[in-house]
Amino acid sequence: MSQRRRTNSTDDILPEYDFTGAVRGKYDDRYRQGTNVVLLDPDVAAVFRDSTAVNDALRLLVSLAESKAPPRRAEAHKPHQANKASHRTRQKAARR
User: Are residues 29 and 23 in contact, defined by beta-carbon separation less than 8 angstroms?
Assistant: First the structure.
């Protein structure tokens, strides 16, 4: 018996494609967990050897940005309230 491949004229798959060893849904679980695919420009991709190198560089960038970022508005507001309290104390002392 011949193992000749059947071709269907309405099939979009070319006859040279061979899916004999393929596993249906191999990456389905991983895909359902969520993915975040980012395409790098060729010049940027040339700098990094793999995704680990990209992730390490981005983590370093995030930590640097967080260390250099000014305090958030809510945090900056706290010292201002402390100044108001000390200002009130000074006002009371000046009245005496």
Answer: no
pLDDT at 82: 53
Q: Write out the two tokens for 63.
A: 């930590």
First CA to last CA across the chain, in angstroms? 112
Measure the CA–CA gap between 26 and 36, rounded to whole angstroms. Answer: 18
30, burial (CB in 10 Å: exposed 0-12, middle 13-18, buried 19+): exposed
Nearest to 82 by CA among 94, 72, 70, 90: 90
CA–CA separation, 64 vs 79, rounded Å? 24
**How far is 71 from 49, CA to CA, in rounded Å?**
35
d(CA 94, CA 92): 5
Greatest alpha-carbon span in the chain: 112
Cβ proximity of 16 and 7 under 8 Å: no
pTM of the model: 0.41
